[in-house]
Write a structure and sequence with these properties.
230 residues, two-stranded antiparallel ribbon, 12 strands, globular
Length: 230
């Protein structure tokens, strides 16, 4: 597949990205997860979290071909971009363990979502679970989402978030990409702390191969998602 342009928040420029680039980024993201994220879920002893960690174990040798450990991964600022929070906020990216209320009737579901939160309800929240798209389409969606990036001061520090809602994205013409990711979650069925990924590591997070689908495999889920956006 031919490459296309996507905005890189680290450089502030549009850059080409291809299937080969996506593969390399996925390897790097897997290593990032092991180095800075998985400990947050290991504390909960959740089966879904352990399964996500196990899924990444096979990437170790391949990841070393693509990642320079003496650069990003050993940066003292690196691990500061992931933290456990008790309360989620709109426009920010979270990972958590989820046990759906209606799992017996759902055609399939992800028990380890990676979600940009969009809205709150009395009993839960609405979000975009990036796992429902294959990596290349995640990159395309992210290109749309970054157009809605804003800054705010939180805990005395300037941080980035997305100024998004279902209505905003639909009006902006991004529906082609985000529609398959829209999921509603019940707060009582979240089975772990929220691990918030701060903006400097959004790119690593969106390429994480940690989806934990039940009833169907990821290829089948992604096939349905592709059909939905055609």
């Amino acid at each position: 597949m031919a490459g296309f342009k996507i905005f890189n928040p680290s450089t502030g420029k549009d850059e080409s990205i291809s299937d080969t680039d996506i593969k390399a980024k996925t390897k790097k993201s897997a290593q990032w997860f092991r180095d800075s994220v998985q400990g947050e879920f290991g504390k909960s002893r959740s089966k879904a979290a352990r399964a996500a960690q196990a899924q990444l174990s096979g990437f170790e040798k391949e990841a070393n071909k693509y990642v320079n450990r003496n650069a990003t991964l050993e940066d003292p600022e690196f691990k500061k971009n992931i933290r456990t929070v008790k309360r989620a906020e709109i426009g920010r990216l979270y990972m958590y363990v989820y046990d759906p209320k209606h799992k017996r009737t759902l055609p399939y579901y992800d028990v380890f979502p990676m979600t940009f939160l969009m809205d709150f309800y009395n009993d839960g929240f609405l979000g975009m679970n990036m796992h429902y798209l294959p990596p290349l389409l995640r990159a395309r969606l992210m290109e749309e989402l970054l157009k809605h990036k804003k800054s705010a001061t939180r805990r005395g520090k300037k941080e980035e978030y997305l100024n998004i809602s279902y209505q905003i994205l639909k009006a902006a013409g991004a529906n082609k990409y985000f529609k398959p990711t829209i999921k509603r979650y019940l707060s009582e069925h979240v089975r772990s702390p929220f691990a918030e990924v701060l903006e400097p590591q959004w790119e690593n997070a969106i390429f994480l191969p940690t989806e934990q689908f039940r009833k169907k495999n990821r290829s089948e889920v992604w096939s349905d998602s592709k059909a939905e956006i055609r």
